[in-house]
From TrEMBL:
GO terms for molecular function: 4 iron, 4 sulfur cluster binding; ATP binding; DNA binding; DNA helicase activity; hydrolase activity, acting on acid anhydrides, in phosphorus-containing anhydrides; metal ion binding. The lineage of its organism: Bacteria, Pseudomonadati, Pseudomonadota, Betaproteobacteria, Burkholderiales. GO terms for biological process: DNA repair. Belongs to the helicase family. DinG subfamily. Keywords: 4Fe-4S, ATP-binding, DNA damage, DNA repair, DNA-binding, Helicase, Hydrolase, Iron, Iron-sulfur, Isomerase, Metal-binding, Nucleotide-binding. Gene3D superfamilies: 1.10.275.40, Bacterial XPD DNA helicase, FeS cluster domain, P-loop containing nucleotide triphosphate hydrolases. Residues 188-436 form the Helicase ATP-binding domain. This is ATP-dependent DNA helicase. InterPro entries: ATP-dep_Helicase_C, DinG/Rad3-like, Helic_SF1/SF2_ATP-bd_DinG/Rad3, Helicase-like_DEXD_c2, P-loop_NTPase, RAD3-like_helicase_DEAD, XPD_DNA_FeS.
């Protein structure tokens, strides 16, 4: 029997112009109702895979699992994998795993599941010549193993009609998107640089980026501070977009200032270039975008969640209308509120359709990164620009590490839920007992564990299970202390599943002054194995910074692919622009810290008297900063000064920087490696000098020494020490000093305050164009 052709599949039909997965098609056309993200614990990806396998294994012989299907509607090809088909029953199954009662599931989500089942149903009917079919939604509770099966009988004609309706709606959007992409690529093909001339080094850097994209390679690019690296890398990458058929350019920044510099550069390219119709989207954290802080993301608590998916299509169309390409946080908020929906979740939807996305590292590199997940789901051909890439080592360690603190457990045990729910109370108490037993067995204040002891690992797993079941049953009764513990527990258990003793370690550290109790850490020391998968998921990636020396340090720790390229752009500055002095008579070591305060204050006062203006002084900690600041203020009350405070918000940081005016005079005190040590641009007379009062070396402690030992085992004894202490410290120093010279016209001075700056191995890591005096 010959199967009837799906629409557009007739003999001689043209090849498809568009391809879409069934899931993506239905998510675009069939989502409706409210945004409802009240906490209902969902199965993990591994639990979902296991659940699908469990359902398939329970079916009768002849059952087909993971059935590949595809079909045409005019120029649109739709394809995917149906979860299962039972030929004997003529039943196609769509399997969904869950936790908790189905009665509390979002009706809009159920409608989406039926839409997917109907599309798969038609594709199966068209492929196998079926006149009718039974569709089934199979909901599997991964905790109890219970299956709930919902069925409906459909004729092939009904299913075909549904399929054509969904495709027609999507096809109209796909045609619009194709026109946008054609216009975008045509404009980028003739894109001109934003300025009449390149700064020294910019053209070279842009060319390196373009070549890396052309060859589909990863590039490690070091270029000096002040040449305009962001603009150069964006230009080079955008020029490669048409020929390389890139879907997305993702600019990933470590901090807010880097994100803003990228947005400014993209706006400049749009104005000064060929007017490329680029859709540029800024992604910000949820707490910065939320209009109703403290409210749950569900219709009863937040008005912007009610009817979200019903109003989303119009909001999406308005945001992506021609001529409105720069989708900053403010612009997305304006569109979202005009349509009565949540700005944060509108921005997540727009990420699917933007050409350039500017956001934090975690959107790609975190295990749950939004952009990486979308790239995998949508099959994007993506290019990455990783700004200030020297920061990625430490950030990635945080993403792939976890910790549990006894204080969180105590708060959870004292929560209202624990006091009234015996099951929750029992699970928390079991964790406490196992945790205290571990602390009692510690011989000192610090211990390393080859693996988490079985009793504690089991108690943590059972606690997560109990809390998941409780929260699934009562999603409308959130308990903040309990949720905080639960989320920390989930992250710890997730990292425990992928624990690798070669690149990570598990340790416990007794709390200062406490007779019992210890912090538990799962420390990611070398994130290379995790990040290697993220580089592989991109067509090309460029990691750029002023401090990427030595290159092998970053290649080893970041898991860069074999055959990656490395480039170093020479500095356009001259030694005469920057006087660099080493204060060999001062030691900033911990043991000498108190004795260094007065000499540092005196040195700063002498420099200010010789050349009044604005200076930045960097210290290794807030405590050290405070000691020198107070001494300086007492000795020199006539010199204006201001200092970085702990936990400054964005307004306070802006006020701090606003004091650096062209005609200003004073000394600002800041923390090395903090908000003002990199990504800050104070050209001309706004900043004429810096004092760096430390080598920036991480504090020596048992955990750090364990990191050194792990890296020594991987990379050798010399690199082990340098990877742990020297390179991270000197990166911070060079970044801080780089605030002074920002252009060819700048002049300034840097004082490196510590005798160790005179050592050859330290001098070798300082910029080659510096002429260091006193070393």
């Amino acid at each position: 029997m010959t199967a009837p052709a799906a629409p557009g599949q007739e003999h001689g039909a043209d090849p498809p112009r568009f391809t879409v997965a069934v899931r993506a098609l239905c998510e675009f056309t069939a989502r409706s109702g409210d945004l409802d993200l009240r906490h209902t614990p969902a199965p993990t990806a591994l639990e979902g895979i296991a659940g699908h396998a469990r359902v398939a294994a329970a079916r009768a012989p002849g059952y087909e699992a993971e059935v590949s299907l595809q079909g045409r509607h005019g120029p649109l090809l739709v394809r995917g994998r149906a979860d299962g088909f039972d030929p004997a029953l003529q039943r196609l199954e769509e399997v969904k795993t869950h936790r908790g009662s189905l009665a509390r599931h979002n009706p809009g989500q159920r409608a989406l599941h039926w839409a997917q089942a109907r599309v798969y149903g038609w594709l199966l009917c068209a492929t196998r010549g079926l006149d009718a079919l039974e569709l089934a939604l199979v909901y599997l509770d991964v905790d109890s193993g219970q299956q709930t099966v919902l069925t409906t009988a459909c004729s092939a004609q009904e299913l075909r009609q549904h399929f054509e309706q969904q495709c027609a709606r999507y096809l109209a959007w796909a045609e619009r998107e194709a026109a946008h992409r054609a216009a975008r690529d045509a404009a980028l093909g003739t894109l001109a640089f934003a300025h009449p001339q390149f700064r020294p080094g910019q053209r070279e850097l842009a060319a390196h980026v373009w070549r890396a994209a052309t060859h589909g390679r990863c590039l490690l690019a070091q270029a000096p501070t002040g040449i305009g690296k962001t603009l150069a890398t964006l230009f080079g990458q955008l020029k490669a977009v048409p020929a390389q058929r890139l879907d997305k350019l993702l600019f990933l920044a470590a901090k807010t200032p880097g994100r803003q510099v990228a947005l400014d550069a993209l706006a400049l390219l749009a104005r000064g270039g060929a007017g490329a119709p680029l859709r540029v989207l800024e992604l910000v954290a949820r707490d910065k975008a939320c209009e109703h802080p403290g409210s749950a993301c569900e219709p009863q608590a937040c008005p912007l969640a009610r009817g979200f998916f019903d109003r989303l299509p119009e909001a999406r169309s308005a945001a992506l209308a021609p001529g409105a390409q720069l989708l900053t946080q403010a612009r997305v908020r304006e569109v979202a509120l005009a349509h009565g929906i949540c700005p944060y979740y509108l921005s997540q939807e727009l990420a699917r359709w933007a050409d350039v996305v500017v956001g934090d590292y975690h959107y790609w590199f975190d295990p749950a990164g939004l952009l990486h997940a979308l790239a995998q789901q949508q099959g994007w051909r993506a290019a990455l620009l990783v700004d200030e890439a020297h920061n990625l080592v430490e950030r990635a360690r945080g993403m792939y590490g976890a910790q549990l603190a006894p204080a969180l457990l105590r708060q959870a045990m004292g929560s209202a839920t624990a006091l009234r729910e015996p099951r929750v109370k029992k699970a928390l108490a079991a964790v406490r007992r196992a945790w205290l037993a571990l602390a009692r067995e510690m011989q000192g204040d610090y211990a390393v564990h080859a693996a988490l002891p079985g009793p504690l690992a089991g108690a943590l797993a059972r606690c997560a299970q109990a809390l998941s079941e409780h929260l699934a049953e009562q999603p409308l009764a959130p308990d903040a202390p309990l949720l905080e513990w639960y989320f920390a527990l989930l992250q710890f258990n997730a990292r425990l599943e992928t624990f690798d003793a070669q690149h990570s370690l598990i340790d416990s550290q007794r709390l200062p002054g406490a007779r019992s109790g210890c912090n538990l850490h799962l420390r990611c020391i070398v994130p290379a194995p995790h990040l290697a998968l993220r580089w592989a998921a991109a067509h090309t990636a460029v990691l750029f910074s002023a401090t990427l020396q030595p290159a092998h340090y970053h290649a080893d720790l970041l898991g860069l692919p074999q055959g990656h390229a490395a480039a170093e752009v020479g500095a356009p500055f001259h030694a005469s622009q920057l006087a660099v002095h080493v204060a060999r008579h001062i030691s900033t070591r911990w043991a000498h810290r108190a004795a260094s305060v007065a000499p540092i204050a005196q040195l700063m006062a002498r420099q200010f008297a010789a050349q009044p203006g604005n200076y930045l002084a960097f210290f290794s900690s807030h405590d050290y900063l405070q000691q020198v600041c107070e001494a300086f203020a007492a000795q020199h009350p006539g010199v204006a000064h201001w200092r970085q405070e702990r936990h400054m918000d964005e307004d306070a940081r802006r006020a701090f920087l606003a004091r650096f005016t062209e005609d200003g005079q004073g000394i600002a005190f800041a923390v090395l490696g903090g908000a003002f040590a990199e990504g800050v641009d104070l050209p001309g007379r706004r900043l004429i000098g810096a004092f760096v009062c430390t080598l920036g070396l991480p504090q020596v402690n048992p955990a750090r020494e364990q990191m050194r030992a792990r890296m020594q085992a991987l990379f050798g004894s010399g690199p082990g020490h340098d990877y742990t202490y020297l390179y991270p410290g000197l990166h911070k120093v060079v970044q801080a000093a780089g605030r002074v010279i920002r252009s060819a016209d700048d002049r300034g001075v840097v004082h490196l305050i510590d005798d160790r700056f005179a050592r050859p191995e330290v001098r070798a890591l300082l910029p080659a164009w510096w002429q260091v005096q006193g070393g």
